[in-house]
Write a structure and sequence with these properties.
The protein is of the alpha/beta class. The protein has helices spanning 23-32, 54-61, 63-67, 69-73, 87-96, 111-115, 126-139, 158-167, 191-199, 213-223, 232-236, 240-250, 256-280, 285-294, 296-299, 306-314, 319-330, and strands at residues 12-14, 38-45, 75-80, 101-106, 143-149, 172-176, 204-207, 227-230. The mean pLDDT is 95. Bound molecules: flavin mononucleotide. Its cofactor is FMN.
Length: 331
């Protein structure tokens, strides 16, 4: 086990997101917005039966990223597993590939995943959780972190979960400050992040509803967390880390006009970088268009007439039409 912090203090981490943070997406973001300190694969579901091959692990992570040292350092591999799944076999392959960083998903709220006793379910079964943590720690010498929620049904196990995770040699914890049953309801309760910071000695990464630069300042100040992670907010503002780093350096105030100006400027850069990477891996235009539409959910929220704008992007019948609308929006 490495004897130093996994991430530098105040790191800005781009969250693992299924259907989004695949290899081309992460490469596009690393090239365009290198201000993000770390990226994660979405979760690889560890199978219970069947052969596990190196090929499937490399495909999930991305072969181009694996081959390039500076990219590998910036990309963590996330798994989702259960007591019965073949965790050891997967971890052994990750170890043989000299993967720098493995993250265990303890937050997935999916009914299907939880009914198979994976994701956030493990927070309610400490015997199973302990077994999984041990299996990983005993077979993996790189950095090992977990990403958890406050609890499964409620917060009764919160402190015990933190303690168990720390005692089993996990090096940092990301906390999405909601229970599994809360799904995405309401607003994440950062007071649990503060509590966790006080209860563990390892770095605590705050996550949940950190939308703008001021939120980053606020969560660091209120909770004293080590670093922060962004999910939906990173999808809404993929240049958020850049803006924050500029904002902090300039000690400045970001008003709505500047925020919208940044959006107009960066939207085109973002989609062009994605387009280049999806084309690089041979995606057809209709697949790229589908992806672009799925990214459109929150991207245009800051415009006054955001519903009309979003609607027009979602109705685009071709990739060319989507891109034309993007250029027109820039004005
Ligand atoms: C579309 C989507 C996919 C996600 N996939 C994953 C995943 O694969 N692994 C994971 O640990 N969390 C996943 N999450 C949860 C996020 O990483 C993050 O914890 C959550 O969205 C809260 O942060 P936010 O308020 O910044 O969005 C996903 C979230 C979204 C919206």
């Amino acid at each position: 086990m490495n004897n130093f912090d996994v991430f530098p203090k105040k790191s800005l981490l781009f969250a693992p997101m299924e259907g989004i943070t695949d290899e081309p997406y992460r490469i596009a973001l690393m090239k365009t917005f290198p201000e993000w300190d770390q990226f994660f694969t979405d979760f690889l579901r560890v199978p219970t039966v069947g052969k596990i091959t190196e090929k499937m692990i490399i495909e999930h992570y991305g072969e181009r990223i694996l081959k390039r040292e500076e990219w590998r350092k910036k990309n963590s591999f996330q798994i989702l597993t259960t007591e019965r799944a073949q965790t050891k076999a997967v971890v052994e392959i990750l170890e043989s590939l000299k993967m720098d960083h493995l993250d265990l998903n303890l937050g997935c709220p999916s009914k299907k995943v939880n009914s198979h006793h994976g994701g956030a379910y493990l927070l309610s079964n400490h015997t199973a959780l302990k077994f999984v943590l041990k299996t990983i720690r005993e077979n993996f010498t790189g950095h090992f972190t977990v990403k958890m929620r406050i609890g499964y049904r409620d917060d009764v196990n919160f402190s015990d979960s933190l303690k168990l995770i720390q005692d089993e040699g996990v090096e940092a914890i990301t906390l999405h400050a909601r229970t599994r049953d809360q799904l995405y309801k309401g607003v994440a309760d950062w007071s649990y992040i503060k509590r966790a910071v006080e209860e563990v000695k390892i770095p605590l990464i705050g996550n949940g509803d950190i939308w703008i630069a001021e939120d980053i300042e606020k969560i660091f100040k209120e909770t004293k967390c080590h670093s922060v992670m962004f999910g939906r907010s990173a999808m809404k503002t993929p240049w958020l880390a850049k803006i924050y780093k500029e904002y902090v350096n300039e000690g400045g105030h970001i008003d709505d006009t500047y925020w919208l100006y940044q959006r107009k400027h960066h939207l085109e850069i973002y989609f062009e970088a994605l387009l280049a990477e999806y084309r690089e891996v041979g995606w057809q235009d209709n697949l790229i268009l589908k992806r672009f539409k799925s990214f459109s959910r929150n991207l245009y929220d800051d415009y006054d007439d955001f519903e009309t704008i979003r609607g027009s992007f979602l109705r685009s019948e071709s990739l060319a039409e989507y891109l034309d609308r993007l250029y027109a929006l820039k004005g």
